[in-house]
Amino acid sequence: MTIIALGLASATIVLKFMDDVVFATIRMKETFRVAHELFIIYLREMDFDPARALHMGNVFRRGGQDTLLSEARRNAAASFRTCGGTPQLDGAKKSDAKNPKTDTKPNGKSDDSSKKPCPDFNAGRPCKKLKPDGTCVFAHRCNQFVSDKGPGGYCFGVHARCTGCDYDAAKKLRAPAA
Ligand SMILES: [Zn+2]
Ligand SMILES: [Zn+2]
């Protein structure tokens, strides 16, 4: 809106640029985080173009979209860490995860017969306690303490606490129920 209001570029150029960079990226099933990072990368491309020839009307058509998109994915993984911890690319979690004690890597599975929710799953970290095949020894269930499931009761819903627990807020506890 600022660019158009100041007359720096016409709406047809700005909107086409936004559609190519942001909305087309989302249509390709990327997250809004990646689209946001890609948008910033394109602004940088125009800013630092040595020939001063790139602008919103031609920067996308110039090519190199794949390279810039993979850079945007890396930036999104590094910048948006809602669960804390080390940056992880989607799809690279299993092979990138470091296991300090053994060389076993998490295979993404968990033992859902376990009565204990996995602390790493709930914190958004790679699981540390693994069986020899890489299956987590704990259940990948929510470890939010709640008041209505007996002593030490957990929410135990099929979600990670760090991504938001939908249990009745009035029954959530900071410490295990006695
Ligand atoms: Zn786990
Ligand atoms: Zn929960």
Q: What is the rounded Rg?
A: 22 Å
Report the sheet with the most strands, covering strand number, pairing sense and barrel closure.
2 strands, antiparallel
Quickly count the helices: 6
Alpha-carbon distance between the termini?
56 Å
Going across the biggest sheet, name each strand in turn.
1-2
The overall pLDDT average reads 87
Query: How would you describe the oligomerization state of the chains in this entry?
Result: single chain
Hetero compounds: zinc ion
Describe the global form: elongated
Secondary structural class: mainly alpha
Supply the key terms.
mainly alpha; binds zinc ion; 178 residues; 2 strands
Walk me through what this model shows.
This protein is an all-alpha fold. It folds into 2 domains: 2-79, no CATH class; 97-178, no CATH class. It contains 6 helices and 2 strands; from the N terminus they run H-H-H-H-H-H-E-E. Strands 1-2 form a two-stranded antiparallel sheet. The longest helix has 17 residues, at 11-27. The N and C termini lie far apart (56 Å). The structure holds zinc ion (2 copies). One zinc ion binds at residues 142, 144, 155, 157, 159, 161, 165, 167.
Reconstruct the topology from this structure.
Blueprint: H1 2-5, H2 11-27, H3 32-47, H4 65-79, H5 93-96, H6 119-123, E1 145-146, E2 172-173
Antiparallel strand pairs: 1-2
Helix pairs in contact: 2-3, 3-4
Region (Disordered): 81-117
Biased composition (Basic and acidic residues): 91-117
